[in-house]
Design goal:
The chain is mainly α. Helix content is about 55%, strand content about 0%. The protein has 2 domains: about 180 residues, no CATH class; about 30 residues. It is built from 12 helices and no strands. Helix 1 packs across helix 6, helix 6 runs parallel beside helix 9 and helix 9 runs antiparallel to helix 10. The N terminus is likely disordered. Keywords: Signal. This is Lipoprotein. It comes from Archangium violaceum Cb vi76.
Length: about 280
């Protein structure tokens, strides 16, 4: 299997196995594990002219984010070897976009809206973990090639736009998620709780906060100088001592808050008389 095929097939396998006829390569795609990133050196990937040194070199390069971005940055600054190496990788992604467009617009897919006829760009994310400008450039050339070929073959613009938008959104969404995780914002935690469900720890924390606020409010009301404080704090037991209001047993209304009954053996503070008869 040549390096072109190694880089090409993982992108194509986003389609159904019937369309691609590449089911024997699916274990290779799904078993892609993170690779180590040794100290960068061009000799790992290409010769002095920028030609790949072996079949695996370009695949390893795109799967090593810092190395890929290093090559792209050097290419942007005019390094000849970097430009040639990155040009090879760009060509592979262009060819992949053309092939995927051909499959999506094949007679089989145009006749029936089969599930396998919609590109599954998650394989691009698996193959290309970087979020930098180099990775974004490769996604863009892949999406551009796909859109141009699909449009030539009669695919509706709305479908093209949604497909390419999903591809390019991978980088944006991943960047936003990483930024939110790094900031650990309160809004992010609230969204996480709403989507994953409230836990017992969350509920307990909220209850503790509410209890603390109630205690603060109670202390503030007791210390307020504008409020009259009475000596009687509890009602004595017994039907004769318990105050009755017409219809049901209720606490005294606001105007009669001081009309309490003394507890046995406990002195009370006199209260100012209020209007009205009991």
């Amino acid at each position: 299997m040549c390096w072109f095929r190694l880089l090409f097939l993982p992108l194509v396998l986003g389609l159904s196995s019937i369309a691609t006829g590449c089911t024997e390569d699916e274990p290779y795609v799904r078993s892609l594990a993170p690779v180590d990133e040794p100290p960068f050196a061009y000799e790992l990937y290409c010769d002095e002219r920028g030609q790949p040194v072996n079949e695996e070199a370009p695949v390893l390069l795109v799967r090593r984010p810092s190395h890929l971005e290093k090559v792209y940055a050097d290419a942007e600054h005019g390094e000849a070897r970097a430009r040639e190496l990155f040009r090879h990788i760009e060509g592979t992604f262009v060819a992949s976009g053309l092939y995927i467009a051909d499959e999506v617009t094949s007679p089989r897919c145009l006749a029936l809206p089969l599930p396998g006829c919609k590109p599954d760009w998650s394989f691009v994310d698996r193959l290309l973990p970087s979020n930098g400008p180099g990775a974004q450039r490769l996604r863009e050339v892949l999406g551009t090639a796909f859109a141009q070929r699909a449009r030539q073959r009669g695919l509706r613009n709305a479908l093209i736009t949604s497909s390419v938008g999903a591809l390019l959104a991978i980088t944006v969404v991943k960047g936003q998620l990483k930024g939110a995780a790094a900031e650990a914002s309160t809004e992010g935690r609230r969204m996480l709780a709403s989507t994953e469900g409230r836990t017992l720890v969350t509920a307990t924390s909220e209850a503790e906060v509410l209890e603390a606020r109630l205690l603060e409010a109670e202390a503030s009301s007791l210390e307020s100088p504008s409020r009259t404080r009475c000596g009687a704090t509890t009602w004595p037991t017994g039907s004769g001592a318990t105050p009755k209001w017409p219809g049901r047993d209720l606490p005294p209304p606001p105007g009669d808050s001081c009309r309490s009954r003394p507890s046995p053996g406990r002195a009370t503070t006199p209260c100012a008389p209020t209007s009205g008869a009991e």
